[in-house]
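User: Quick sanity check before I run a bigger batch. Here is a single chain. Can you write out its predicted 3D structure?
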Amino acid sequence: MTPASFTLGEGNRVTGDQLVALLSGKQVGFVRRHDSSPGFERRFSVYFRSDGSFSSRCEIRAVGATSWAECPSIDDNRSRGGREAGVWHVAGGKLCVGRLRNQDEVCYTFYRDGGRYYLQQASGGAACMPGDVSIQ
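Assistant: Done. Predicted structure follows.
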């Protein structure tokens, strides 16, 4: 997990209706180093629809390269292709996402400091979302 670029605490946690309003109809983006291939990084775009569904796209490139290509898989060969869909909701003040391909649910605590955002994994299996994210 990448460390937060700001201090995390109860005072800057985003929960409940605030979290739904922050994400509904928005795209969350982030870049992460590829754990199993250290010379590569992946860029993710996750669009959170107001109906509780989401779609995501994964792109990959060699570190330092300028162009991106679609990921061959989202989760190290358990699924094929760089796109997937699922459902999302807020439970217990946390963002929870479930992928349609394998129905694993992962929940995150969401923090904000001005225009900076950070996701901290709260429950579920391996995930690449924890870390700083942008919202558009």
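The chain has a mean pLDDT of 87.

User: Great, the batch can go ahead then.
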